[in-house]
Design brief:
- The chain is of the alpha+beta class.
- The chain is about 50% helix and about 30% strand.
Length: about 200
């Protein structure tokens, strides 16, 4: 009889706990998929709610952003460029999740790249929130970018230097929604000129 009562109490408590502590039943793998969904829906607030306050976001060998304010700029950029990511081969070990990632967006499309591939990628979680996100551009994607980017950057530097200067600071892109829109406009102009 006591066992039956314990089972009934447990059955009643689990939904209550899930209501009080939303997402407490999600595995870390599920959290990664929640992140992917929020990103692809361009839900900036939802994406930001998945990060710890002291989040670090790094593209290995390129740049690192620290704290929610800097990382929010990335989320705004991704939404403005219509970024879509596809996460696969998720592996969970302790508080760390590793995976592969494929990303497409309007910015990449305008420079002539369908998708960028990142592998390996990792997220480290603390109290269910993403504390560290690290991604490494695949060698194939790095080479593709190095092939298409120099003539585009040269044209921008020569023809649109005034518009370009606020977009890049100390050789790093400045990520936010306004800059993303300016980039898209400049790249569309470049494409039109290149196709004439």
């Amino acid at each position: 009889m006591k066992t039956i009562i314990k089972c009934h109490v447990y059955i009643l408590l689990v939904p209550l706990l899930n209501f009080i502590v939303p997402g407490c039943s999600l595995s870390l793998g599920d959290r990664v998929k929640t992140y992917e969904e929020a990103h692809n829906n361009h839900d900036i607030d939802k994406t930001m709610s998945l990060y710890a306050n002291d989040i670090t976001f790094e593209i290995v060998g390129s740049w690192m952003k620290s704290g929610k304010e800097q990382v929010r700029g990335l989320a705004e950029w991704d939404a403005a460029t219509n970024s879509q990511m596809f996460i696969s081969e998720i592996y969970v070990s302790g508080d760390t999740v590793t995976f592969k990632l494929k990303e497409g967006n309007d910015w990449f499309a305008l420079i002539g790249i369908d998708f960028m591939y990142y592998e390996p990628c990792s997220m480290i979680f603390s109290d269910g929130l993403i504390k560290e996100l690290k991604a490494e551009v695949s060698e194939e994607s790095r080479k593709a970018f190095q092939e298409v980017w120099p003539p585009i950057y040269q044209w921008l530097s020569e023809e649109r230097s005034e518009e370009l200067s606020p977009l890049i600071f100390e050789r790093e892109f400045v990520y936010n929604a306004a800059n993303a829109k300016t980039w898209l406009s400049l790249l569309k102009e470049y494409r039109q000129k290149a196709n004439e």
